[in-house]
Specification:
single chain, about 850 residues, alpha+beta, 4 domains, 24 helices, transmembrane
Length: about 850
């Protein structure tokens, strides 16, 4: 039986290739996800293995939003160095900066941090290797001199002696010109988009601290004192409510953990899409083996007739599946390594993630082989059982009625599941928040199961109805294509399901994207009255000095900045907004409840309707914020605004309250809204604003339409990434249609030969296959789009708590998808149609 199976595989090389390839695509992404994250994690480990080298203990603030470590702690630890066992003590200062490249534009980091810090000479550094400069460089001596890391210098086209410009995002300083006086010697083989700009200690202190705090304190221990012992002594000497005391090893591990946490999330996303590919691939493999068994009915029955047992027959089918799985897993591993290499290259170029040599771990190998084998065996199990039940008498039949079993039971089960799934989705759409989202997700899973069971029965009237319309112009050829498409509803449904699942996800994402873009457009049109909005490119924050410079421009009537606020109320972390400059009511429409004034009095705040109801923050009540420096700040609620002013978020502080709640080193703006003075020329005002913000490198001036377009383009970019990843499922779906049609041609060889013998032309044969494929593809597309839009609509309703507006269906995407499905049907049918047209009538009729 093993020899029979091996010869059967060898005799059908094309069928073997198509089946293996569907396994390869799914396993490639699983293996690729593991190799990619292992590679990036290894590269980050190489970087972070050098973090805090030479540091025995580090004292830092518990929260990044705080002012840092008080100078009093530095002075106290310095005085007690000998008592505590401290050898050297070094203070750190750091903050976000933007640096211009050789052409005067901001260095593009792809999302990697661009950090400024203090340069520590090798003779003072705890790890001198981190401060080594390349030959020809020197330490910065003044505010107009900087030291730069080599990878950033290379990317920016800068070298020792280059003139450039720097912007400190959280400083009151305006952009200033600097000279590169040194390039840091690389300490890691990993390349990345990180930018490290180092100043002299005095400049760094002025830029990144309020004068009363430092960023962190690094200490080395005297000989004979272990890091753990020094940690215990320092902990006893400082206030642990606001500060954390870590050993150098703990600092390195905490940074690695943060990175790995991000990488794990990214890996889960990749694996989710790989899982989608595997699910689609599973149906294709199942469909393939079902057809193989059907085509081999006579062969298997003859084996039974000459003495093969049911167990031997089923084992032979499973053995073929095992071979397919092993080959698919092995090739999938190679494909995964190639995909990982591509992802690493893209990540290094666009996101600033470090790169290094590919890490092909044992887990990647095992995952590829395990997934390939298990998925294929599971997919082949039902056909194997069916094959074992073929009675020997079947060998004496000239034809087989594969797929003719009644659909009644599975259709009833599918209908019941559909009712349950739709009810769950509708129930979730009524609410909002995490619970309803989960309910919609559960309903979606049930509905997909319902489609799997009920699609065969549904395909007959739908495909038949479409065939009467779409195939009618083609006469008898169209009628034959329609008959072929509905003759085996199980096969039609299984083939279409691959496309259904992919397009279902496309429709869900498209609906959510259209909803969010529609929400942005509605909010901007209804809320913002400013003539121009100044915001950072790619989400960059703005220096607080942008507002002060804008207010001095001729033609500016009102200018208001919106700033981020982070604090605590009780033990709960809260985030909101603050206004700086003129009142928000001067640049926005704010709809107030109860006739309250839109003006925010000094030291007070406005809250949204939802926040007022959920938190109990009513007009006249006082909200006590606790800053991340441990200070309490009571703020009175002046009024409540309606939730339709989305730009304001949950609450807004006045400028005076903002200055008390947020430490000065953490104060940044994310947008400045400008209203022109009466009679001002808007075009001239725009030119003046552009000239003023040009030195800030990342600030753009936009009118309301441009602002909406920018936000929409950002949404489109995110959707583009998701669509690209969903392309995997669609590619597998197309291959599934090709596979099914190719096997169908083999199964109908005698039939096609007979048609050719009685006069059907090759072009007519090809046209028949094209039409059959188009009908199947459109059926799958209609199911996917209808389900996806309904589920996307329900999800959008549940996301109202997070700012989503009324659901918006992506009509253009729907039309494009249906047209694209017809095109996919033709493309998928090209090879099977050509193969069918080449069928030789006499050979086909004589085939047994």
């Amino acid at each position: 039986m093993r020899r029979v199976s091996m010869r059967n595989l060898g005799a059908h090389k094309v069928r073997l290739f198509l089946t293996v390839f569907s396994v390869v695509l799914g396993t490639s992404f699983v293996a690729g996800s593991i190799v990619f994250t292992s590679t990036i994690s290894h590269a980050f480990s190489g970087i972070f293995d050098r973090v805090a080298l030479g540091v025995a203990v580090q004292v830092s603030a518990k929260d990044a939003q705080s002012s840092g470590v008080p100078n009093a702690i530095v002075d106290d630890l310095t005085k007690r160095k000998q008592q505590l066992g401290i050898d050297r003590l070094v203070t750190e200062y750091s903050g976000l900066v933007t640096l211009a490249d050789s052409s005067g534009n901001a260095i593009q980091t792809g999302g990697a941090p661009s950090m400024g810090s203090a340069y520590i000479p090798p003779d003072q550094a705890l790890n001198p290797a981190d401060s080594q400069l390349l030959p020809g460089g020197q330490a910065p001596q003044s505010a107009d001199q900087i030291v730069l890391n080599k990878s950033a210098a290379d990317n920016a086209g800068l070298h020792v002696g280059s003139k450039t410009r720097v912007v400190a995002n959280s400083s009151d300083l305006k952009p200033w010109d600097v000279t590169v006086v040194g390039i840091l010697k690389p300490t890691s083989d990993a390349e990345s988009g990180f930018v490290t700009v180092q100043f002299d200690a005095e400049t760094a202190s002025g830029l990144f601290s309020d004068g009363d705090h430092v960023g962190a304190i690094d200490m080395s221990a005297v000989q004979g004192v272990t890091p753990t012992e020094l940690q215990q002594r320092v902990r006893a000497a400082v206030d642990q409510n606001q500060l954390k005391v870590q050993t150098g090893d703990e600092v390195r591990q905490s940074q690695k953990d943060q990175v790995n946490k991000f990488l794990n999330i990214f890996n889960y996303i990749l694996l989710a899409f790989a899982g989608i590919g595997l699910i689609v691939g599973t149906f294709i493999i199942y469909n393939t083996f079902s057809m193989i068994v059907a085509q081999r009915n006579r062969e298997l029955a003859l084996l039974r007739a000459v003495g093969a047992s049911r167990r031997q027959v089923s084992r032979s089918v499973l053995f073929e599946a095992l071979i397919v799985g092993l080959i698919g897993g092995a090739v999938g591993l190679a494909g995964g390594i190639a995909i990982a290499a591509l992802l690493v290259a893209i990540a290094g170029a666009t996101s600033g993630l470090p790169s290094g040599s590919l890490q092909v771990t044992v887990w990647a190998v095992l995952a590829a082989v395990f997934v390939g084998v298990i998925v294929t065996l599971v997919s082949a199990w039902v056909p194997a059982v069916r094959a074992a039940r073929v009675p020997p008498v079947e060998a004496m039949r000239a034809t087989q009625a594969e797929g003719s079993a009644p659909l009644r039971n599975r259709t009833i089960a599918g209908a019941l599941l559909a009712v349950i799934g739709i009810a769950a989705i509708a129930g979730g759409a009524v609410g909002q928040g995490v619970g309803p989202v989960i309910l919609v997700g559960a309903g979606t899973a049930v509905l997909i199961a319902a489609v799997v069971l009920g699609a065969p029965a549904l395909s007959q009237p739908v495909v038949g109805g479409m065939g009467r319309v779409l195939a009618a112009p083609f006469g008898k050829v169209g009628q034959l294509a329609r008959t072929n498409a509905v003759r085996n509803p199980r096969r039609t449904a299984a083939t279409a399901f691959a496309l259904t699942l992919g397009l279902l996800l496309v429709a869900i994402i498209g609906t959510l994207g259209s909803t969010f873009k529609g929400t942005v457009d509605t909010n901007v049109d209804s809320s913002i009255t400013a003539d121009y909005i100044l915001n950072g490119v790619s989400g960059s924050t703005l220096s607080p000095t942008v507002l002060s410079e804008v207010k001095d421009v001729d033609g500016v009537g009102k200018a208001t900045a919106l700033s981020f606020v982070a604090a605590k109320v009780g033990d709960k972390a809260v985030n909101g907004r603050a206004q700086r400059g003129d009142q928000l009511a001067d640049v926005m429409n704010i709809s107030m409840l109860g006739g309250a004034s839109k003006t925010i009095p000094d030291g007070q705040m406005l809250v949204s309707e939802t926040t007022s109801n959920t938190e109990g923050w009513k007009p006249g009540s006082t909200v006590t914020f606790t800053t991340y420096d441990g200070q309490t700040v009571p703020v009175k609620v002046a009024g409540v605004y309606r939730d339709d002013t989305q730009a304001l978020g949950p609450w807004v502080l006045s400028e005076k309250a903002y200055q008390r709640v947020m430490p000065s080193v953490a104060q940044v703006d994310y947008a400045v809204f400008v209203k022109a003075s009466q009679g001002a020329n808007l075009s001239q005002l725009r030119d003046a604003l552009t000239a003023v913000v040009k030195p800030y490198l990342v600030v753009q001036v936009q009118d309301r339409e441009q602002y909406k377009s920018t936000v929409s383009s950002q949404i489109d970019q995110m959707l583009g990434v998701l669509y690209a990843m969903l392309g995997l499922a669609l590619v597998i779906a197309v291959l599934g249609i090709i596979n099914t049609l190719a096997l169908s041609v083999v199964e109908r060889k005698r039939e096609i030969g007979m048609l050719r013998a009685i006069g059907m032309l090759r072009a007519q044969v090809r046209r028949t296959i094209y039409l059959e494929s188009v009908l199947i593809a459109i059926f799958g597309a209609i199911l996917g789009v209808l389900m996806g839009c309904g589920i996307g609509w329900a999800l959008a309703r549940t996301l109202r708590e997070w700012g989503a507006g009324d659901p918006v269906l992506p009509w253009s995407l729907i039309v494009i998808t249906l047209i694209g499905a017809a095109v996919v049907g033709v493309i998928a049918a090209l090879w099977p149609a050509v193969r069918a047209a080449r069928t030789k009538p006499l050979e086909a009729i004589a085939d047994v």
